[in-house]
Amino acid sequence: MVNFNDIMETITMIQDENLDIRTITMGISLLDCADSDIERSCEKIYKKITAKAKDLVSTGEAIEKKYGIPIVNKRISVTPIAMLVAASGGDPVKYALTLDRAARDVGVNFIGGFSALVQKGFSAGDRELINSIPRALAETQFVCSSVNIGSTKAGINMDAVKMMGSVVKEAAELTKDNQCVGAAKLVVFCNAPEDNPFMAGAFHGPGEPDVVINVGVSGPGVVRSALAKLPADAPLNEVAELIKKTAFKITRMGQLVGTEASRMLGVPFGIIDLSLAPTPAVGDSVAHILEEIGLEQCGTHGTTAALAMLNDAVKKGGVMASSSVGGLSGAFIPVTEDAGMIDAARKGVLSVEKLEAMTAVCSVGLDMIVIPGETSSSTISAIIADEAAIGMVNSKTTAVRVIPAIGLGDGDELDFGGLLGKGPVMKLRPQSSQKMIDRGGRIPAPMQSLKN
């Protein structure tokens, strides 16, 4: 039996409340493309991606037309390219250019996996790939990059943390004539998941199947709209219950799309990532959900508690609606991509320190934060280390995606346009962390790692 009210509710969510499928992402293993000759390896990669993903975009469009559900992005994630560099040697940027060409030819908007996993140290290919990231991101349009520098089981590789501070800065400098977008396509992780469908941090982990479809849902506007109908004096347990029920409805739509895409493409269905992913569009903001809960503005006292409740309720509702939940799954707080966050940052209510506290209770981390262009690489490394420590100790995924706005400082704004949005340059502490970062080495794994 089809419930007419349920149909009308879904139509309202899509038309008026910005409900969408944020991405269907095809994960493709490139392990069988490894070759001692980098040119042959690149040729194998191009052929495999274009063969496996040739119908990805058209399938997404067909599902949109059939069900009336917007699918905003169609994307690809691949095996961490450092693994292929280990076999072939040579200039890793050749792999990036191959990925970019394949992405363009199949019509996706991003391809992720120009990545390295170095949480416990560097193996063959890792240093070469990391050092090539700034050039790779400057010379490509669709390629995204990520590096996992820590985990609860391994601790934090502080040598990699030091490297990534310089890499982030150089990625911004090489793309300073294009809004420093190189840094916006680069994520530094602790406890990176292997099945994340969201960019810029998506890669296809070595434990994943040969090809898989993962789906990322999104509906901050739907949650806010539901909360707006509650009485102003409704207790917080009722607020959490309503969020949970709303997340269930959002995730069921993602389950439908994932199942249908899997069937049409003849590819296994992997996971639903039920993260609330905002956009700069009015009415599609996680910050506005927190304000609907009762904060005058996101960033004020009480923000972390409200976000913790939101994140938990989203997980509880979403996990009951899908056969397989994975990826990051929570509430994203990317400053430049969230209208409410942008406003709060402009007014100085939302600080980097408050954002760091918020990342302890939600996914994913310090995301899309514009920082002064003169910020030193050691300060960027220290920000990465702080965020990695939160993830390591709390056994959760954390990440850093900061954009040094070359030539800009306090009071200026960087405008990417589109999904990446815009945002003010946020203040950082002026005191140096250089001595700590220069020590290098490794922060040992915490007691939480000893679970066997």
Keywords summarizing the entry:
452 residues; alpha/beta; Anaerobic Ribonucleotide-triphosphate Reductase Large Chain; 2 domains; eleven-stranded mixed β-sheet; two-stranded antiparallel sheet; 16 helices; 44% helix
What's the helix count?
16
So what's the CATH class of the largest domain? Alpha Beta
Q: How many β-strands, per DSSP?
A: 13
Q: What shape does the CA trace take? A: globular
Secondary-structure class: alpha/beta
**CATH domain fold name of the largest domain:** Anaerobic Ribonucleotide-triphosphate Reductase Large Chain
SSE run: HEHHEHHEHEEHHEEHHEHHHHEHEEEHE
User: What percentage of amino acids are in beta strands?
Assistant: 15-25%
Amino- and carboxy-terminal Cα gap: 48 Å
Number of domains: 2
Over all CA atoms, what is the radius of gyration?
21 Å
- CATH-derived architecture of the largest domain: Alpha-Beta Barrel
The residue ranges in which pLDDT falls below 50 over 5 or more consecutive positions are none
> What level of helicity do the residues show?
40-55%
Biggest beta-sheet profile: 11 strands, mixed
- Mean pLDDT rating: 90
